[in-house]
């Protein structure tokens, strides 16, 4: 049994040097497997004399246990190393800030519509809607703009074709959101408080005009509504929308067929170094038209003008979006240039609300 020491040294060295679990298993089979070296020596015991067998058997058992222990210890060590390696390679720093992945962008016009809807909702205005293809009665007549009225020409109207032989007046692409006043009052009567944001169309195209643009109409009818309520409402809106502590509005007498009296409203601002500031400075920027709803308009919508009165206004949404977010060219709004949208757009999950800050 002199060879046992050599055998022991051979296996212990091999176990110490083996690099992975597969190699270790090969060693186990070679030493202790059914046809392994130790097993072969064990089966040789049967041919020995009893005394010899006893001594050799004990030595072989010790050797077998030693090799077995070495194999197990190595197996555990390899397992730990594998786990450590995995932990090291899969390590991640859960304290790092998440990288926000942008899923599309919200167009500034949509953003501004959400903002102004939130502000007016807070003041008790619901959102009303009307069709973009409108009859000319709603778009003009009901708003006290009869066919011969010069305001019809000023609207640069797009007319829809009628079928051959159909001589009813053509439908138009609505030239303003004011027809929604008529639809809302007809449907709901008075009292009423609504805004109507949406698309409008006029045949016009230059740096400050596009054939399609956006307006928001406002309408508040009750028993005692006056110009004072109009002024307060618009000031509240501008303060909230432009996110400044105070604004100053200037009401200029004007004329619209659907209001009497009528006023155009300018907001105080300054232009310094190409930077627009709302609420301070010595410049005025026109932002909307408004007035007390004309009795004929109330009548057209079936509202008794002897009992009810109120104000209306119409404001350009694209205009106030440009002012608030410093966007220089109106035409770029509608060119569908993704680079522009990525620059001026808003994150999709950032819904504006008054509590959270509108454009935070
Ligand atoms: N509809 C007008 C326009 O497009 C804007 C307007 C002015 C709306 C006065 C109103 C208003 O409701 O009272 O130019």
Automatic annotation (TrEMBL):
GO terms for cellular component: cytoplasm. It catalyses: tRNA(Phe) + L-phenylalanine + ATP = L-phenylalanyl-tRNA(Phe) + AMP + diphosphate + H(+). Its cofactor is Mg(2+). Its EC number is 6.1.1.20. Its main location: cytoplasm. It comes from the Bacteria. GO terms for biological process: phenylalanyl-tRNA aminoacylation. It is found in: Cytoplasm. Belongs to the class-II aminoacyl-tRNA synthetase family. Phe-tRNA synthetase alpha subunit type 1 subfamily. Tetramer of two alpha and two beta subunits. This is Phenylalanine--tRNA ligase alpha subunit.
